[in-house]
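Hi,

I'm pasting everything inline rather than attaching a file, because the server keeps stripping attachments. The sequence lines come first, and each chain or strand is labelled.
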Amino acid sequence: MNAGNVDRAPLRFADFTPGADLGAARVTLDPERFARWRALFPAAADAETAPPGLLMALFMSGFAEAFAPHPDGNIHAGQTLDFTGRSLREGEGARISVTCRHKEERRGRNWVHLFAQMHDDTGAEIMSGEVVVIWAI
Amino acid sequence: MVWPEQLVEARLRASPEAIRLYAEITRDFNPLHLDAAFAAKTPFGRPIAHGTLSLAVLWEAIAATFGADAGPGAAQIRFTAPIAEGAMIIASGTRAGDYDPQAAMMRYDFIVTDGAGTQALAGHVDILRVAMDAAS
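And the predicted assembly:
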């Protein structure tokens, strides 16, 4: 995973503090994203709301933007997810906030556990989950 | 609605076009997924699909199995190996809980493999029945 803010140096493993809020980002289910999803998964052609996979994609997009930039070469190692059953319609937006839960160095690799929540514009939770990343630098 | 023993298998080719589309949706342009020259210098040797693209195939398997009658709730996922560009992503799952036709939730163990049988993702997902009043 990475994100495109090139004005700052990429975050390093040493920069993470367990318990710290890392930031938040807003995403929108714009028509282009929905069209690309339908191109990937034609079964979603008639979907009026984002299917779980597209919610997950928006979730990961917000996750990446919330505390950019990430270094190249990070590895997404694990994940928990909790869908609430809420979704988004085309044109609707959501906010993804990220906190650092835990970090550890294990077998020569830097593991970071990050918790993210996605809420719609009414404040209702859409989904949450812990993202486990092997941080590259 | 019944809780079948197996999820309907879903497949997606991890073509360069599919990976590019997913990168544009997520805005995740990590060169590990998109740049063959960069990926060649990594332990993977070639571009790999985003892990959550492979996971998306699982959600398609769930949708193909249950339609609008049920959907995912909680899930635990391990990314165990990458899926290389060009490989087939195959998602399947098996009912893990005791069969109860009236159950509001059922756990399924799942795996996502490449076409050669290498396991890329594994875990379990709790499928929640959509309440009739919510569906109407």
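Chain A has a mean pLDDT of 92.

If the labels don't parse on your end, tell me and I'll reformat.
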